[in-house]
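Thread: quick sanity check before group meeting

JM: Hey all, I'm pulling together slides for Thursday and realized we never actually wrote out the predicted structure for the chain we discussed last week. Dropping the sequence here so it's in one place. If anyone has concerns about the input, flag it before I start.
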Amino acid sequence: MFLITLLYFSLMSWKVIYTWKHSHGTPSDCLIILGAAVWDGKPSPAMRERLDIAVEAYRKGLAPAIIVTGGVGGNEPSEAETMKHFLTLKGIPADAILLEDKSHSTMENLRNSQVLMKEKGFHTAVIVTHGFHAYRASLMARSLGIPSTVEPVQIRPLALTYYTLRECAGIAAFAFEWAVGKTGI
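JM (edit): ok, ran it. Output follows.
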């Protein structure tokens, strides 16, 4: 059992880091910025990193619309509202930004974004998240049938081992939930 666990974490760590370092968004109908914490009504450093990547991708013409995601955490405003405010201050037109402000997890971010995509006639997306989170986010999008690529934040967190192992555990939990949902166990 130890060897299987070691093999799993080794393989998943490689997939997490490979996806982080080699993924790039391709021209799509929209960007989906996954939620991150709000601190005192302002973007946390993690959210700012995602927003900076999204601004750059939007200005490069990667997508003509942006879906900002995330509900209210500890205090208002929602993550999505905070992102929209930041983006408009950076010159992104307000009418190019769609609000998904009900979610509290990555899967909810993506499910609710998929609803907005269908309403707007969007078929493809670029997911903007941190590099260590890119592989799991892309697996979740694929499980929902969202054709997507990932534009990851390339900044290396101080606790890289922690985040990589956390993602490996998150991938295992997601795979288990997905399998149970598919089989009805």
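AS: nice. The helical segments are 2-22, 45-59, 79-89, 106-120, 134-144, 160-183. The longest strand covers residues 125-130.
JM: adding both to the slides.
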